[in-house]
Amino acid sequence: MSASNGIRGGLTNYGDKDFAAYLRRSFARSMGLSGEMLEKPIVGIAMTPSGFNNCHRSMPDLVEAVSRGVLAAGALPRPFPTISLGEVFLNPTSMVYRNLMSMDTEEMIRAQPMDAVVLIGGCDKTVPAQLMGAVSANVPAVQLVTGPMMTGRHRGERLGACTDCRRFWGKYRAGEVTDEEIGDIEGRLATTSGTCAVMGTASTMACIAETIGMSLPGTAAIPAVHSDRMVAAERSGRLAVELISNPRRPSEIVTWKSVENAFRVLMAVSGSTNAIVHLTAIAGRLGIRIDQDRLNRISDETPVLVDLKPVGEGYMEDFFAAGGVGAVLREIRHLLHLDTVDVTGQTLGERLSGDADWVDRRVIRPFEDPVSREGGLITLTGNIAPCGAIFKRAAATPGLFETEARAVVFDGLEDLANRVDDPDLDIEANDIMVLKNAGPVAAGMPEAGYLPIPKKLARQGVKDLVRISDARMSGTAFGTIVLHMAPEAAVGGPLAAVRDGDRIRLSVSEKRIDLLVDEAEITRRLAERIPPAPAGRGYRGLYSRTVLQADEGCDFDFLTHNGSPKEN
Ligand code: FES
Ligand code: MG
């Protein structure tokens, strides 16, 4: 093991250094640590338990298992808290706090005396925040996830948060499920510790963390309650100790090649739209940017191989049993950069060199027989989204891919809430619903892009219609939904110009979304726009003033690499 200062590491450079070391040791002693332990190198454990985060319920067990691994490998584990983001408990949206958590993580790694760090996250925004913080702090780091939930049961059917939450709520709104049954379902959707049971944002980010090389190979999909999850934690602790004497820093692991590999896997697992924003932000911390044409090329070349909800049938427990991320990587091996290095020091080519284990082909399909020939996500551009928009074609209705229709416009979240179920709302099944002012600056970019089907249409049996916005949607949602339109309406993006009754054209084959209104008229309408009031005080004020648009990952402008990401 390399020379480490143990608890004396990172002492400030002013005053009497010996006194500072003496003081620090003395205070460390008050935690009941022997002098011998204080000589050891230190592995920090960024832990994120919270009474407001169900997905991290198993955190105490994981911290204990990581600590065991660290101790067994000869170092001193030091768990420390950072803020925790429980997706469904945060207002106005957890997205607002991702950057705050990334700053907390980065600064606490930097400020405290640790030689390496294990980061334990799980719920949607936590893993992106930890990876953003870790790559910026650039101390040797291992990402560990809490793992997905197991499914519940209802009348002989498996249920998993949160695709089935939406499915049953949709039925309830349409009057097909009673009050009593929806109450029963509520208690059966999320029944164990862990993250959402489908390929939503949390699971997608776990797959990305493994592919990019920051997590131990084979660990992304292990269920939260499986004993292997604890073993993964123990091994992550051991690995962090190895990284002290043989450092591989996050900046050596997260490269444009490993970022491209992660985008490939995002397509092959048909992952969450949110993952594009998060991966863009993580890469942006190192000045890496994958442009939109490249992203579309990756999507067009990479088939969807994984048959999981919200796009397909299975749940994360099936994905784990079927072979997990390793099995997917093998299928798309010929498309990957094989010379990337993961946190263990092996190249991706080395990882994939052995024979594949048994793979359940019902869940992870062979490259030649995919779920669909093309990747799940694409970017669109057009005159209402000059900096792009995201479309999850794998979760959309192909019959709506080429739509030209009348716009029904909602001016913001409040307007949507007030009018969407109004029986007098002027809307028909083949209209396009438009939501403005739900982007990063206006509203923190909530998951409002999954606009509810107006009740009057739902009752007529309408299951889907084209919906467009500058918001996000949950990774567990589905529908013909155009999201992340940039620039957003609140900063003067052309989405602000759309009015009721305008014609809009969506063309998935051309990867375009356009407002069929004269450019001069669009310019005139935008000039008439009344800009929103300037941002107020505190963190929310900082957020509004410095958040970047969706195509740049919604990071703060002062946190990206040298202030702005560069194209690859
Ligand atoms: Fe935490 Fe879905 S609510 S992962
Ligand atoms: Mg989610």
Give a brief rundown of this model.
The protein has helices spanning 17-29, 35-38, 59-72, 95-111, 126-137, 163-173, 179-186, 201-212, 227-245, 250-253, 256-268, 274-284, 292-301, 316-322, 324-331, 348-351, 413-419, 440-443, 455-458, 519-528, 538-546, and strands at 42-47, 76-81, 116-121, 141-145, 152-154, 157-159, 377-382, 385-392, 402-410, 432-435, 467-469, 481-483, 503-507, 512-515. By secondary structure, it is α/β, with parallel strands linked by helices.
Give your account of this protein's structure:
- This is Dihydroxy-acid dehydratase.
- Keywords: Iron, Iron-sulfur, Lyase, Metal-binding.
- The strands form three sheets. Strands 7-8-12-11-10-9-13-14 form an eight-stranded mixed sheet. A four-stranded parallel sheet has the order 2-1-3-4, with helices on both faces. Strands 5-6 form a two-stranded antiparallel ribbon.
- The mean pLDDT is 95.
- By secondary structure, it is an alpha/beta fold.
- It is built from 21 helices and 14 strands.
- Bound molecules: FE2/S2 (inorganic) cluster (FES) and magnesium ion (MG).
- The site of magnesium ion has 8 residues, from loops.
**Ends: how far apart?**
36 Å
The CATH architecture assignment of the largest domain turns out to be 3-Layer(aba) Sandwich
Counting DSSP H or I runs of 4 or more residues, the number of helices is 21
Uncertain spans, ≥5 residues at pLDDT below 50? none
Question: Beta-sheet strand percentage?
Answer: 5-15%
Name of the CATH class of the largest domain: Alpha Beta
The helix fraction, in percent, is: 25-40%
Strand order of the largest sheet: 7-8-12-11-10-9-13-14
**Strand count, sense and closure of the main sheet?**
8 strands, mixed
- Name the overall outline: globular
Count of separate structural domains? 3
Q: What would you call the quaternary organization?
A: single chain
* CATH topology description of the largest domain: Rossmann fold
Supply the helix-strand structural class: alpha/beta
Rg on CA atoms, Å: 24 Å
Bound small molecules, by name, code or SMILES, are: FE2/S2 (inorganic) cluster, magnesium ion
| Mean pLDDT, all residues | 95
Number of strands: 14
The name of the CATH superfamily of the largest domain reads Response regulator
